[in-house]
Amino acid sequence: MTQEAIKPLNRALHELEAHLKEPTSVAATAALVGYSRAHFSRLFQAVTGITPVAYLRKRRLTEAARELAMSPKRILDIALDYQFQSQEAFTRSFKQEFGVSPGFYRMQKRLRRLFQRISLGMSQLLYPGKGFDNTPRLFVPEQQLVAALIVPYVRHRQLALRVQGVTPMRLDTPKIRLAHRHDIPTLCRLYHELHEFTVRGVPDRLRSLGDFDCYDAAWLSLTVEKLMDAVDVALWVAEVNGQVVGLAEVYLREDERNDLRTAYRYGYLQCLVVDPRLRGRGIGRQLLAAAEQWSRAQGATELRLETWEFDQGPLGFYTRQGYRTLRRTLVRSL
Asked: Do residues 94 and 164 both lie within one domain?
């Protein structure tokens, strides 16, 4: 898809955003950009990974959630502002989106799991099920790099990356933010790379997914999308020069309460991974700090994680960041 082909979709997105507090329809937006409703809906979903109806609903609920947390307006007034016919209809949709009622969300007084506005560019196209994306390669100056994932974080081997005929990019300071829908293709590639690295560390425990270019990432795209919508999950990404180069997936959990155990509210780091071309630049530490800060803001008193133990695995990275072993799983082959 060319940049010219993207322009009508960006115009449609702008139109939907302009009508978050006003009546509108997908058919009217489609007509504005010269498409039939059916063709517009198919194209919109193919590029963004979400239907225009769902996009409009999620954006309205997100802005309503922002007002709930930051303004004293009545819930009914907010519901009517964002085109819900009643407070009951608003509450049903809100609970479906955020997992809690509008009143409970307001009581927490913090913004959580907002669906951000999408703005399309050539590096932000989603091709679900194709196993690849249109993101340009991230060129870095010729130097020695640590070729390994932050989780796992290792000095596996050193590479010198030479780019012929291309001026190396200046690497800006990494920006840590919550993931957006248009990040999904790159996130799928990072998840795949993390899994394959771990397979090499424990080949008797995990199975390879094969080469990414031949990998059907449709189910993974949908899984990542659900993570972005979950109230008790944060998916942080590191962005350099406008490109996502790392991610951290963290959950909010709580120990089961019983008389024999002290229950903790804690963050759980499911995974952390950084593009192998940008190892040793502190990006993993920044992602870990974001996971810790988010967990703390949710009332957690600690951040936990589990990791495979193998030569040149991730244990050293976490130990250097101040993490200690809380519990071990021991195994003996028979």
From this structure: no
Say what angle helices 52-70 and 3-18 make with each other, to 10 degrees.
50
Residue 125 included in any domain: no
Cis peptide before 152 (omega within 30 of 0): yes
Query: Which amino acid, 169?
Result: M
10 Å Cβ neighbour count for 112? 20
C-alpha span between 313 and 279 (Å, rounded): 14
Single out the residue of 323, 321, 108 nearest to residue 232, CA to CA.
108
Cβ pair 24, 56 in contact under 8 A: yes
Helix (H, G, I), strand (E, B) or coil at 99: coil
The pLDDT tens digits of the residues spanning 217-262 come to: 777 888 888 888 777 889 999 999 889 999 999 999 988 888 888 9
306-327 pLDDT, tens digit per residue, is 998 888 888 889 999 999 999 8
DSSP string, 123-170: T----TTTS---PPP----SSEEE-S-STT-----EEE---TT-PPPP
Q: Which one, of 154, 112, 144, 126, lies nearest residue 48 by Cα? A: 126
Q: What's the order of all strands across the beta sheet hosting 302-305? A: 175-178, 233-240, 243-254, 265-274, 302-305
How far is C-alpha 239 from the geometric centre of its chain's CA atoms? 12
Looking at 92, 108, 124, the residue that finishes a domain is 108
CATH number for the domain that contains residue 148: 3.40.630.30
The CATH number assigned to the domain holding 16 equals 1.10.10.60
Tell me the residue range of the domain where 162 lies: 144-320
